[in-house]
Amino acid sequence: MRCRLQTLVQRKFKILLLFLLLSALLLHLAMDLALPTARRLWSSGGKAPKGSGAMAGSPLLAGPKKLSLRILQDFSGSNGSVERSSHPQGAGPKIKDPGVQQQRGDVNRARTKGSKLAALFEHPLYNIPLPEVTDKDKLFVVNPMEKFSLQSSGSDEWVSSSKAEAILPTGKTAYDTYPAWLKFHVGINRYELYPRRDPLLPTLLHDLATMRIVSSVQKSGGTQLKLIMTFPNYGQALFKPMKQSRDQETPMDFFYFSDFERHNAEIAAFHLDRILDFRRIPPVSGRLVNITKEIRDITTDKKLAKTFFISPAGNVCFYGECSYYCSTEHALCGKPDQLEGSVAALLPDKTLAKRRSWRSPWRRSYHKSKKAEWELNPNYCAQVRQTPPYDRGHRLLDLIDMTVLDFLMGNMDRHHYETFEKFGNDTFLLHLDNGRGFGKHSHDEMSILAPLQQCCSIKKSTYLRLQLLATRPYLLSELLREALAADPLAPILTEPHLRALDRRLGKVLAAVGRCLARAAWPGEVLVDDVGPWV
C-alpha cells in the first residue's frame, strides 16, 4: 500500500513539473512574438516623404528606420522639442561600444607615405584633442546587443541578435556587423560629424560610388532636381546631377539665387571642409549613373517617371519637378544614358535625430534690387552679438568658420544652416547644400566675408590653419588637388578654380590682418580655442 502511494505521488509531481516547464516555454515564445510587433509599432510614426511617389509601407522607405530604431537606443534632445521615444530618458543601456573605438583608430600611415594630405593631418594643428565624448555628447547611444544582418536584399526585415547567431567571430563586436552608413551615423557627436582620422571614410565613399542602387525617387522641396537613392543595405544618398561642364563659369548677369547647382561643387566642398578641419559636411563622392537602369527602370515616383524622354540625338533625358530648371528646355541628358552626379551620404532621419534650421543673420535679400540690413549697416555685428544664440558660446565663431568656407568656394547662397537639436546651442553647424559654390574662378565676392569683416573675430585655431595652408608644402590648392584626384569623376575642379583658392585664402588672411591692426591686443580678434596645445 505504501509503495503504491509513493508511486502515485511521484507521477503527480512529474506531471506538475512538466506542466510548469511547458508554461514557461509558452510564455517565452509569446514574449518573443510580442517584442518585434511592439517595436514595429514604436517605429510607425515616420511618414514617407510627400511627393516621393513611393508607398508609405514600402520596404525601401521603412527599412532604414526599422534598422536604426532596433540598433539605436533612446536619445534625448534639448529645448523640449525632440521626438518622443518609447523608453524614458536614459532607460536604454548606455555602454560604450568597444567596436567604435577599435575601428575609429589611426589610419595606416604606410599607405599615405609621400602624401601632402597625410602630412597635413600629422601636423600639430590637426591633432588638437577634442573634449572627451560622453554618452550625452553622442547623437545616438548604441545598443551593443543588436547585430545587423539582412535576411535578403528584397526583404524589409533584418535579423536581430536574438534570431541570428549568438556568437560573433573572435575579436568582433555587434558594431562590426553595421554597414558603413550606420557606423557613420553612430559616430556623430557634439563636436564633429566624423573623426579626423576616420578609417570608415574610404569605405563609405566607395559604397556611395559603387553600391548597387535599388530605388531612385525625387526629393521633395528645393529649387532644383535632386534624387534620393537607396542601396541594398538600406543606406540612402542624395544625388545631384551634372548641369554644367567643369570649365563653364556662371554668367556674370546671373543672380546668385538663379545659379545652377553643380555636382562637382558638392564633391569639392566636402574635401575642402575636411582640409580646413571643420568636418561639418557629410561625405560626398562622384558617381557615373546609368539613367535607364539606375533611375528610370527602378523608380516608384510616378511624377518623375512621366518626365523621361529620348532626345533627338538618341540620348535618355529627364527633368523631374522643381522650382527652377525642371522643363524639357533644361532636361538632364545622358551620353547616351550615362550621367555624372554627386552622391552624398544622408544624415540620420529627422524622426530619429531632430535638426533645427537657423536663418543666417547675414542672409541675402534674394531680391533683384533690395539689399539686406547687413549690407547697409556697418555696425550690424553689434546687433548680432546681442541676439541669442550669438550672444554666448562659440556660435558666432562657428558661423565665421562657415563664412570662410563659403568665400573660398565663392558660395553666395547660404541663407540657412542647421544643427542637431539634441546638443542645443553648444555644437557645430552643418554645412549643407554647397552646390552653388565654385561657379566663378575669375571673381572673388568680398561681400561673403561680411561676418568676418564686421565682427573682426575668428577662432585662433582656424586662423593658424589658414596661415599654414598659405605656405608650402601645405598650399591649399595642392592639398585639394590631391584629395580630389581620388574621386571616381576626377578631375573635379579645373586649374583656375584651384588657383583661385590660394588667391582667396590670401584675402581672408589680409582681412584678419586689418582687424589685428585695429585691435588693442590680438585676443580681441583671435579667440583662443587651442589653449596650451599650440
UniProtKB/TrEMBL annotation:
<dbReference type="GO" id="GO:0046872">
    <property type="term" value="F:metal ion binding"/>
</dbReference>
<dbReference type="GO" id="GO:0016773">
    <property type="term" value="F:phosphotransferase activity, alcohol group as acceptor"/>
</dbReference>
<dbReference type="Pfam" id="PF06702">
    <property type="entry name" value="Fam20C"/>
</dbReference>
<keyword id="KW-0325">Glycoprotein</keyword>
<keyword id="KW-1015">Disulfide bond</keyword>
<feature type="binding site">
    <location>
        <position position="261"/>
    </location>
    <ligand>
        <name>Mn(2+)</name>
    </ligand>
</feature>
<feature type="binding site">
    <location>
        <position position="224"/>
    </location>
    <ligand>
        <name>ATP</name>
    </ligand>
</feature>
<feature type="binding site">
    <location>
        <position position="433"/>
    </location>
    <ligand>
        <name>ATP</name>
    </ligand>
</feature>
<protein>
    <recommendedName>
        <fullName>FAM20 C-terminal domain-containing protein</fullName>
    </recommendedName>
</protein>
<keyword id="KW-0479">Metal-binding</keyword>
<dbReference type="InterPro" id="IPR024869">
    <property type="entry name" value="FAM20"/>
</dbReference>
<feature type="domain" description="FAM20 C-terminal">
    <location>
        <begin position="308"/>
        <end position="519"/>
    </location>
</feature>
<dbReference type="GO" id="GO:0005524">
    <property type="term" value="F:ATP binding"/>
</dbReference>
<feature type="binding site">
    <location>
        <begin position="344"/>
        <end position="347"/>
    </location>
    <ligand>
        <name>ATP</name>
    </ligand>
</feature>
<dbReference type="GO" id="GO:0005794">
    <property type="term" value="C:Golgi apparatus"/>
</dbReference>
<keyword id="KW-0333">Golgi apparatus</keyword>
<comment type="similarity">
    <text>Belongs to the FAM20 family.</text>
</comment>
<feature type="active site">
    <location>
        <position position="413"/>
    </location>
</feature>
<keyword id="KW-0067">ATP-binding</keyword>
<feature type="binding site">
    <location>
        <position position="261"/>
    </location>
    <ligand>
        <name>ATP</name>
    </ligand>
</feature>
<keyword id="KW-0464">Manganese</keyword>
<feature type="region of interest" description="Disordered">
    <location>
        <begin position="77"/>
        <end position="109"/>
    </location>
</feature>
<feature type="binding site">
    <location>
        <position position="418"/>
    </location>
    <ligand>
        <name>ATP</name>
    </ligand>
</feature>
<keyword id="KW-0547">Nucleotide-binding</keyword>
<dbReference type="InterPro" id="IPR009581">
    <property type="entry name" value="FAM20_C"/>
</dbReference>
<feature type="binding site">
    <location>
        <position position="240"/>
    </location>
    <ligand>
        <name>ATP</name>
    </ligand>
</feature>
<feature type="binding site">
    <location>
        <position position="433"/>
    </location>
    <ligand>
        <name>Mn(2+)</name>
    </ligand>
</feature>
